[in-house]
């Protein structure tokens, strides 16, 4: 069993010392929990790929405390990137820029570029201050699985790792990963939808292109399946729910409070506001997965704007066979 440590000065000091000697440490951010190692230590980074069973060509995000730390891992900072981070950092926006040659290639999955983000969660920030460098961290789930939004989720995924320290910062407030924007070329391109909406980015940069080919091709088995529970999961429109549930078996249904779910199906009610839905969806998927039901059915949220587009993206990937 991995060790869950409460957020305290002593835990931060211990975790920072572990990072300095090349260990992997799990920690809370405002989006999801991360599995971190020292960006400048290639052996430590290799341990992340091994623990997570992540394909080595799928690049990691370097977490930094501020712009000065970001400039130690990336180059090519222009007025446009400064403008974006002055509006969105610290927070759930990840920026892709050219990688500095001092950063080991493995920290960026071999790419010439590197993704950087300055998290907002006080625990993540304390850890970054204490270790004084950059921490590369993917979401702390096993590759392809549902991202963790509590320390207990991480402990369950890594129950076999008795040496792993997990810094407990409580449930993640946002609950969905950062938005990834590529600024390494002349035109900005969104590589992953996330907690900063396209509407917000368009206000800051003007019309913006979305191309998620990298994340999709880097996913296990080169499919879009990702963020996925173990049970088969499908998305069903509200007006098809009754018919789908009458097919038999016992389904774990992730639905809205006013939906009618007959027995023996098990319901997980979700809030109808996007912030609440995003904050709860990964926990709901994990709990639905543990019910012992035959399958998971997700009622399709009828909303499209703002954060809902990132939510739809995650639901689609969680339900792709
Ligand atoms: O909210 C988050 O971003 C969380 C927390 C822990 O910060 N981290 C996270 O990391 O979600 P991960 O590794 O699960 O997702 C990183 C995404 C992947 O889709 C990866 O392909 C993309 O960012 N990415 C990272 N570096 C890239 C690069 N140089 N070029 C293109 N895509 C990159
Ligand atoms: Mg991930």
Structure description:
This protein has 321 residues and is an alpha/beta fold. Helix content is 31%, strand content 19%. The strands form 2 sheets. Strands 1-8-2-3-7-4-6-5-9-10-11 form an 11-stranded mixed sheet, sandwiched between helices. Strands 12-15-13-14 form a 4-stranded parallel sheet. Helix 1 crosses helix 5. It starts with a strand and ends with a helix. The mean pLDDT is 95. Bound molecules: threonylcarbamoyladenylate and magnesium ion. The site of threonylcarbamoyladenylate has 28 residues, from strand 5, strand 6, strand 10 and helix 8.
Give me some keywords for this one.
321 residues, alpha/beta, eleven-stranded mixed beta sheet, four-stranded parallel beta sheet, 11 helices, binds threonylcarbamoyladenylate, binds magnesium ion
Quick recap:
By secondary structure, the chain is α/β, with parallel strands linked by helices. It has helices spanning about 10-20, 40-50, 65-70, 80-90, 120-130, 150-155, 200-205, 215-220, 240-245, 275-290, 310-320; strands at about 5, 25, 35-40, 60-65, 95-100, 115, 135, 165-170, 180, 190, 210, 235, 250-255, 265-270, 295-300.
Structural class of the helix and strand makeup? alpha/beta
**Can you give the helix content as a percent range?**
25-40%
Overall shape: it is globular
Strand order of the largest sheet: 1-8-2-3-7-4-6-5-9-10-11
Q: Largest sheet at a glance?
A: 11 strands, mixed
Ligands, ions, cofactors? threonylcarbamoyladenylate, magnesium ion
Name the beta content range: 15-25%
Radius of gyration: 19 Å
- What's the overall average pLDDT, rounded? 95
Count of strand segments: 15
